[in-house]
Amino acid sequence: MQAREAEIEERERVHQVQERLSQLQYEREQLQAREAELEATAVESEDLEHVVTQLRSRVAQLEDRESRVAQLRRECRSLRGRLTQLVTSTMDEKPLQEERCKLMQEVGHEAHRVMDKLPTAMQDCSIAETTPPDVT
Q1: Which residue range is the domain that position 62 belongs to?
Q2: Is residue 40 part of a domain?
Q3: pTM of the model as a whole
Q4: What are phi and psi of 132, to 5 degrees?
Q5: What is the DSSP letter of 132?
C-alpha cells in the first residue's frame, strides 16, 4: 500500500508540475505577446518621431517662404510707388517738351531773321550751322 500511496503522490506531483509548466508556458506566451506589442509601439514611436522631424522641417520651410513673400510684397509696394513717381514725372515732362519745341521754333525763327539781315556770302557759310533740328 505504501508503494501505491507513493505512486499516487508521485502522480500528483507530476500533475502539479505539469500544471505549473502549462501555467508558466501560458505566462511566457503572454509576455512574448506583450513584448511584441511594446516593440511595435517602439517602432511606431520612432516613425512618429520621424514624422515630427519632417513636419518641423516643413514648418521651417514654410516660415522661410512666408518671410520671402512678405519681403517681395514690400519690394512690390516700393516699386509701385516708384512707378507712380515715374508716371507722374513723365506726365510733367510732356509740357516741358512742348515748351522746348516752342522755344526751338522761336530760336529758329530768330536765326532766320538774323540770317536775312546778313550779307549773302555770310549766309551761305552759316546756314548749316544755325538750322535748328526738326523736333516734331
Answers
A1: 2-130
A2: yes
A3: 0.40
A4: -75, 150
A5: P
Distance from C-alpha of 73 to C-alpha of 80, rounded to nearest angstrom: 10
* Cβ contact 136:101 at 8 Å: yes
Is residue 19 one of the residues assigned to a domain?
yes
- Between CA 129 and CA 45 the distance in angstroms is 92
Domain assignment of residue 135, yes or no: no
Q: Position of cell 512666408?
A: 66
Cβ atoms < 10 Å from Cβ of 26: 10
Helix, strand, coil percentages, rounded to 5, for the chain: 95, 0, 5
Report if residue 125 sits inside a domain. yes
Per-residue confidence of the chain (136 residues) as pLDDT tens digits? Answer: 788 888 888 889 999 999 999 999 999 999 999 988 888 887 788 888 889 999 999 999 999 999 999 999 999 999 999 988 887 777 777 777 888 889 889 888 877 777 777 666 555 555 555 555 555 5
- Measured CA to CA, the distance from residue 117 to residue 115 in angstroms comes to 5
* Tally of domains in the chain: 1
**Which residue, 94, 98, 89, 96, is CA-closest to 136?**
98
